[in-house]
Design a protein that fits this description.
alpha+beta, phage-related protein like fold, 7-stranded mixed sheet, 16 strands
């Protein structure tokens, strides 16, 4: 019964996440329309017409309304799915009480206090540690989702085992239409179906917590562990999705569409334009730029033919900057502008498929690090990631060293 309920809750959370992604894509499209309208007026050096004013105000209102909806949906992901309105309050209160009990049990275990034996508290104690309650695990996973945008934007498959994702390939041969003559056979042309395979590569993240902090009764140990683990996991996940590891997780290493830079440590405006044009218009609405902060710093100094900077601060952008109308995200995991590196990615990151096993295991190790006056918190997960839609993403590769 509890398992069925947990599955139902996960399904509800997944549905809300999909709705949130869809709304963010719609918001990006509305914002693009708004910028194009303003750009047209600026280029023609004239005032807004009455019709344009009305359209601009409408777009602005739609974006504000969508921002409020996105914020509420984001909050709703932490609210338990309730079966019926009549029993929702009772059920919600019971779940809140259980979650509070699990947090207390978890904090007590870390502090070395005696555990209250209760069957409904999901804390399994082993020889050298304890499995963290599911309520704590869910908060850590949620935190990872919030702090790691590339993971948030990617298409996720929460399935155990190996999965195969089919796609239609017209790279070498495609369906073509041509003139025909009566009583003459048509020549058959078609693409082919192929697939990408997502496996499960085991990885672990370890965070050690000082016992001096743990022994401080005023210290909020549960939020600290959640943030520490989420930070450790998200850094690793982001690195693998952006850079990948040979013979392990591919991530964006599998991006095919590519633009080559003329230099090994600098980029030009035309190269950025070429990179953006690699992605078809149909996939531009949800596109973003991803680069190292040092690369963004270099691009901030580039100007167009009229002496205007091409990268600008933008209060409406998710990460504060836009380049050619698209949001710019920086990550320390992205390679710098050095010879042979893929220094910039551009595109709709839903083209990246990520498979994470549902059975994420997070444990507390009290005894192992006792000689270090610390407690260990370790997470195990299976993950894989590959590009599933090659048209959605492109990369800029720096000139190789001679």
């Amino acid at each position: 019964m509890a398992r069925r309920h947990a599955k139902k809750v996960r399904t509800g959370l997944q549905k809300r996440a999909e709705e949130l992604k869809s709304l963010m894509e719609q918001r990006a499209e509305l914002l693009q329309q708004m910028k194009e309208l303003a750009g047209r007026v600026e280029t023609e050096q004239r005032a807004f017409s009455e019709e344009e004013n009305e359209k601009f105000d409408t777009l602005e209102k739609q974006i504000r309304d969508m921002d409020q909806t996105i914020e509420k949906l984001d909050k709703a992901r932490n609210i338990p799915v309730q079966k019926e309105k009549t029993e929702g309050k009772t059920k919600g209160k019971a779940e809140d009480e259980k979650e509070t009990q699990e947090e207390r049990a978890f904090a007590a275990y870390i502090r070395g206090e005696a555990l209250q034996e209760r069957a409904d508290i999901n804390l399994t104690v082993g020889d050298n540690g304890a499995v963290i309650p599911s309520s704590i695990v869910n908060k850590i996973i949620q935190k990872v989702h919030d702090v790691c945008p590339i993971y948030q934007m990617a298409t996720k498959y929460n399935i155990g085992g190996t999965i195969s994702i089919p796609y239609y390939d017209e790279e070498t041969q495609s369906i073509t239409m041509a003139y025909a003559t009566e009583f003459t056979e048509l020549e058959s042309t078609s693409g082919k179906f192929t697939s990408i395979e997502l496996k499960g590569f085991l990885a672990g993240a370890l965070s050690k917590v000082s016992k001096s902090l743990i022994n401080n009764s005023q210290f909020q140990i549960v939020p600290f562990v959640i943030n520490a683990m989420a930070d450790s996991i998200s850094r690793w996940i982001e690195k693998e999705l952006l850079v990948g590891t040979e013979d392990k997780i591919d991530g964006l290493r599998g991006v095919i569409q590519s633009v080559s830079a003329a230099g090994s440590n600098a980029v030009h405006t035309d190269e950025l334009i070429d990179l953006q044009e690699e992605v078809p218009d149909v996939f531009q609405a949800g596109a973003v730029w991803i680069m190292n902060k040092s690369t963004r710093t270099a691009i901030r100094k580039l100007k167009d033919g009229d002496g205007n900077y091409i990268l600008n601060k933008d209060a409406t952008a998710r990460w504060g900057y836009t380049l050619f109308g698209k949001d710019v995200y920086t990550s320390e995991n992205m390679p710098k502008m050095e010879a042979g590196n893929a220094a910039i990615f551009y595109g709709d990151m839903t083209g990246l498929a990520v498979k994470v096993s549902e059975n994420v295991s997070i444990e507390v190790l009290r005894e192992k690090y006792a000689t270090q006056h610390a407690v260990g918190v370790v997470a195990w997960l299976e993950m894989d990631a590959k590009v599933e839609n090659a048209q959605k993403i492109a990369k800029l590769v720096m000139k190789a060293a001679k």
